[in-house]
Amino acid sequence: MQINSVTYECWHEMGHAFVCIALGGDVQCVELLENHEFGRARARCITNLNIRQRVACGGFAAEYVLLRDGDIGPQDEREITQVLFRNATIDREMYHSLPSGADFSLVQDRDFMNCAVNNVAPIIRQYKTAIANAVGGLERDGRVGGERVKQIMSEI
Is 122 domain-assigned? Predict the structure, then answer.
């Protein structure tokens, strides 16, 4: 899998969706986008204050799991860390309830990363096979509804 490919971005967005549902939230859909200004896919998650931060970490956690499991091949640690944090810019803003374009402190980045690695990556690992199935459906059909995501999750 190539970093920042359509498949990779689908994994990021499915990470949000699977974490949301696993924590008791809901998902309208995960869809491919025609306008690539903010990426090629997006998850429409319905969260609450109790799960919002962990759901915001779902995409980063999915990328982290792909990296650690060797699914994107060997990477320069410094470079890939920058890619993962750049891919999660909007997610970090949501996690910290910051406005668009805000600068992040080292403490804020560490807090986001620790939540993603320690609290959210285990959910991604639990559903990794199911996420792969959902990503395939998203790439094929351009959209996966929330009910279909739940069905895929229940099949593991």
Answer: yes
Long-range contacts of 29-36 (CB under 8 A, 24+ apart): 29/143, 29/144, 29/145, 29/146, 30/134, 30/138, 30/143, 30/144, 30/149, 31/138, 31/142, 31/143, 31/144, 32/6, 32/138, 32/139, 32/142, 32/143
For residue range 83-111, list pLDDT tens digits in order.
Answer: 888 889 999 999 999 999 889 999 999 99
The pTM score is: 0.93
* Residue labelled with tokens 């096979």: 129
Q: And the tokens for 102?
A: 């805000």
CB contact at 8 A, 66 and 14: no
Domain with residue 16: its CATH number is 1.20.58
As for how many domains the chain has, the answer is: 1
Range of the domain at 99: 6-154
